[in-house]
């Protein structure tokens, strides 16, 4: 299955870069790059991206909830064990938004799902979606989530995606096609969550002229 999945991932249209219409300007010929970086690129994350991932995550979550969904060690573990279930959005080589997922083998998410990857299962647990502070309020979270879900449809054997979120985020995920499955059994301190589910059945499709 891993060979098939690797082939599917490498050929997925939802991981293709798109480029600026004009080259990126540079200060002088001495600093000119041999290749122009894509204006935007979507790709699977690697352990080498872990520091950038954690810095964005920490800034986004610690000030709100006092705790990151994933520790740096957990980011490294998931990006090592299941990089194909992650997606990063890079602009001119810089990470601006990301999603990290892992495999899960039960009907509902449980506390152990927060730090566990179960390979070869039909369910993806989306641990975290985060956007760099300078890129918020631009719709990037919605675009990245849409692209990620379409990408998951291209992977063999996947049937659904699960996540937990605070109640105020339920409308955001409903708009993306998730269904509210009710209160989650998972708690982080005093925080309580709703469990959301997205069915991955059907074919992936591309938005026309979306620039995605």
Quick tags:
single chain; 212 residues; alpha+beta; seven-stranded mixed β-sheet; 5 helices; 7 strands; 25% strand; globular; disordered C terminus
What does this structure look like?
With 212 residues, the chain is an alpha+beta fold. It has helices spanning 2-10, 50-65, 72-81, 140-153, 170-175; strands at 41-43, 86-91, 94-104, 123-131, 160-165, 179-188, 191-199. The chain has a 7-stranded mixed beta sheet, with helices on both faces. The longest helix has 16 residues, at 50-65.
| Biggest pleated sheet | 7 strands, mixed
Distance between the termini: 28 Å
Mean pLDDT: 83
Q: Classify the beta-strand content into a percent band.
A: 25-35%
Question: Which outline best applies?
Answer: globular
Uncertain ranges = 18-33, 207-212
Q: Report the structural category.
A: alpha+beta
Please state how the strands of the largest beta sheet are arranged side by side: 1-2-3-4-5-7-6
What is the count of DSSP helices, taking H or I runs of 4+ residues? 5
Summarize the structure.
By secondary structure, the chain is α+β, with helices and mostly antiparallel strands. Helix content is 26%, strand content 25%.
């Amino acid at each position: 299955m891993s060979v098939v999945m690797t082939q599917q991932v490498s050929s997925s249209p939802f991981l293709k870069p798109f480029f600026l219409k004009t080259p990126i300007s540079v200060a002088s010929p001495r600093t000119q790059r041999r290749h122009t970086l894509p204006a935007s690129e979507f790709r699977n994350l690697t352990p080498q991206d872990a520091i950038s991932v954690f810095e964005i995550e920490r800034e986004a979550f610690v000030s709100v909830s006092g705790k990151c969904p994933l520790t740096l060690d957990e980011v490294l573990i998931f990006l090592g064990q299941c990089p194909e279930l992650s997606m990063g959005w890079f602009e001119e080589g810089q990470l601006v938004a990301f999603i990290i997922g892992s495999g899960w083998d039960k009907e509902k998410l449980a506390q152990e799902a927060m730090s566990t990857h179960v390979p070869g299962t039909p369910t993806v647990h989306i641990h975290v979606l985060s956007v760099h502070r300078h890129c918020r309020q631009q719709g990037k979270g919605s675009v990245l989530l849409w692209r990620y879900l379409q990408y998951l449809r291209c992977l063999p054997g996947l049937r659904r995606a699960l996540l937990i979120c605070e109640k105020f985020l339920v409308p955001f995920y409903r708009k993306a096609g998730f269904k509210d499955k009710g209160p989650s059994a998972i708690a982080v301190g005093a925080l309580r969550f709703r469990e959301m589910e997205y069915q991955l059945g059907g074919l992936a499709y591309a938005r026309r002229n979306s620039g995605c």
